[in-house]
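for the recovery benchmark. tokens below, seq after
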């Protein structure tokens, strides 16, 4: 029988109090056993995923969506390895940040502690189920996960493995939870689970994030929306490098939030760079090009870009392309239309690069590298809970340490405060 959201919340709250005092040895053992259980149940997980994919195709969902939904041997092994990599990270809780003594003799200890119960609402990527659980457990939190209805069978199969391993390892009942009711009502109830949920993290497209921000009655960390840019500067002389970076930024996986959605090119190199670059993307990568007037003159197959295109996260084989007259125009365009996620400049000029990196408002800014590296695994976090676009309290890929907070413990010897 499916548990209600309220029942899950109560169980997770009780578990969080025990999770806060579990030792790192137990938490790491649980993560490693979860990895092995995923491998052991691979066939059951793949079978469940096939049901989700078949349902998605019946509904006529886009191939980019189905690509995000799809699991295979490699992706399940990646999930298992992610759990093991998180287990190998340092313990983010229980350590003293600092300690000092006041003139009255009080000793004040500042330490890192778990946030408590973490809720994560996400869309069609089943691997988020294991990634999110891993980071919550590593940081001593309990978690309540709610994936998209299109991935319900996959998520349930993955959670079955995680729950079994968590229990076997000795974690408290309710440390990891999945809302198995795919209805919108259940999602809305989770967003308003005050008294049980300490923070809610939406991980998905702009529509999901907007819905959570509008509905939630609990604190929210905004993540996910990625209208990312690559700017090819006039001082970029290595076109071979630039083409490889641009190609990877767009086509490594078009459906993820760190994929490039807009390409900006300086007018001084547009004629030399764009025709071959866009032909490669269009013919080999099957990317639809939407460009400004200059782009369309250089590439006749390009469609006209509208104002809406500059602000769109496509998550698809579509790319907006604009020719800019200066570095300053590129920075202004990004700060106007970007989502403060990931931006990149390709240039040989260190001073121009530094100006771009200092002035662009984004969580991650790159020089001569694709935005596709914005990822918890690539940053050395093992996995990630999401990529935060906001500035409070975390920014960029969020690893275990970002799911902690400060606690003060004060040691006295009978001092009293004077009036």
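predicted aa per position
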């Amino acid at each position: 029988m499916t548990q209600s959201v309220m029942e899950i919340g109560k169980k997770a709250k009780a578990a969080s109090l025990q999770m806060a005092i579990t030792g790192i040895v137990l938490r790491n053992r649980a993560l490693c056993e979860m990895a092995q259980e995923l491998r052991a149940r691979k066939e059951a997980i793949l079978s469940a995923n096939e049901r989700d994919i078949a349902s998605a195709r019946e509904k006529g969902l886009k191939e980019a969506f189905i690509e995000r939904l799809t699991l295979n041997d490699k992706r399940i092994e990646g999930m298992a390895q992610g759990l093991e990599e998180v287990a190998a990270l340092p313990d983010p809780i229980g350590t003293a940040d600092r300690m000092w003594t006041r003139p009255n003799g009080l000793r004040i200890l500042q330490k890192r502690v778990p946030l408590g119960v973490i809720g994560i609402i996400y869309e069609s990527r089943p691997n988020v189920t294991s990634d999110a659980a891993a980071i919550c457990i590593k940081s001593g939190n309990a978690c309540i996960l709610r994936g998209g209805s299109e991935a319900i069978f996959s998520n349930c199969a993955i959670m079955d493995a995680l729950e079994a391993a968590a229990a076997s390892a000795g974690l408290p009942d309710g440390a990891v939870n999945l809302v198995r009711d795919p209805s919108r009502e259940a999602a809305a109830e989770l967003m308003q689970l005050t008294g049980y949920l300490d923070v809610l993290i939406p991980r998905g497209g702009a529509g999901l994030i907007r819905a959570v921000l509008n509905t939630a009655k609990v604190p929210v960390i905004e993540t996910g929306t990625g209208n990312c840019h690559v700017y090819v500067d006039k001082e970029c002389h290595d076109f071979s490098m630039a083409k490889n970076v641009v190609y990877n930024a767009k086509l490594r996986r078009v459906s993820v939030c760190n994929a490039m959605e807009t390409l900006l090119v300086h007018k001084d190199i547009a004629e030399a760079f764009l025709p071959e670059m866009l032909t490669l993307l269009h013919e080999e990568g099957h990317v639809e090009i939407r460009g400004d007037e200059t782009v369309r003159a250089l590439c006749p197959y390009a469609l006209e870009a509208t104002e809406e295109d500059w602000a769109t996260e496509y998550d698809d084989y579509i790319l907006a392309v604009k020719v800019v007259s200066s570095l300053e125009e590129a920075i202004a365009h990004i700060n106007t239309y970007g989502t403060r996620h990931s931006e990149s400049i390709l240039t040989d000029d260190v001073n121009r690069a530094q100006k771009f990196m200092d002035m662009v408002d984004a969580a991650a800014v790159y020089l001569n590298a694709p935005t596709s590296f914005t990822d918890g695994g690539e940053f050395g976090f093992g996995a990630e809970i999401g990529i935060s676009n906001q500035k409070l309290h975390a920014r960029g890929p969020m690893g275990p340490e970002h799911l902690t907070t400060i606690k003060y413990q004060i040691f006295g010897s009978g001092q009293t405060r004077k009036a």
